[in-house]
Amino acid sequence: MSLAIGLANKKSIMITPTPPFNFEGTIYNPGHFPTPTEKYEDGIFWQTMRFLNEEFGLKFENEGATNNPEVKLTIYSKNKLTKEKLKIITGELNYRFEFNRDISEFCEKFKNDKLLELVLRRWKGMRIKCGYSLYESLIIYIILQNATVRRTVQMSNNLFENFGTKVKFDNKEFHVFWKSDQLNKVSEDKLRELKLGYRAKSIKKVSESFSKNEFNEIELRKLSNEELKKELIQIYGIGPASVWYLLFEVFHRYDALDYISPWEQKIYSKILFDKELAESKKILDFLNQKYGKYKMLAAHCLFTDLFWRHKKKKINWLEKEIRL
DNA sequence: CATCAGGGCCCTG
DNA sequence: CAGGGCCCTGAT
Rounded to two decimals, what is the model's pTM? Predict the structure, then answer.
């Protein structure tokens, strides 16, 4: 058991997101499998962050409401945070958590939409955040592949226990993602021992690319959807399903929805048409026609609302589909 | 006990 | 472009 690194220095600032901003709906996604890097509890969200070659702890507290949002952010660090670093970190978080994105047009446009009406009443101001870097997200999408959630969690825990950095802040312990070059040095056999199976090869290759700085995440953000897809699909172990996750989640492209995997197809069929299984083309055309450039944001709202309802009161058919 | 599909992707023919 | 193989696990 390695000892946790204490992140004793802290610095708090207030963030005023662009309204409408739904804190809970944005900051925490109950549809995601749990990792030891984050925790959500009634208006407070903790997360670790490896950034600028350093480990940080983040604490977000909701101090406002959807129409006049205020978020208190506390950054925990090993060394005292310089003004420069604070600026870079908050800039990055601004992108990852979409604090300044204006989605009022979407909320206004679909407030009477049959499918979204209730969802928007509950979750108005929900947007698509991704707390992780591109490298970290790639790892997550790779361990999701061809596995049930239980197995994904097992792979994730094995990776964090073996390669993650344990930190302690705000009296809580979490793991921080490892560095890409650290994982690059690990043998494929070792990764297979950790039950990663054939994904070990993809993880090795991705870690190698990132340790060689072959990707510039900031530059990738500037690309069009098509250009971005072309870049991402070249990554070993990344196919159409993962590219689509990357586009909407990591790169926040609200219009990126042209792929539906089998398990999602079942869920869409149920919530859109109340059917066992609709053709995926039918689902895609329907969402495209109805929501246009907001189709992925709309789909995300529908999905996340569903998982929130499930979290609060078990939905039997969904329980069956997600199969822990 | 064996067989199979799962929150895909790569490679081959 | 279709289809087999891939790691491991729980379900059947």
Answer: 0.96
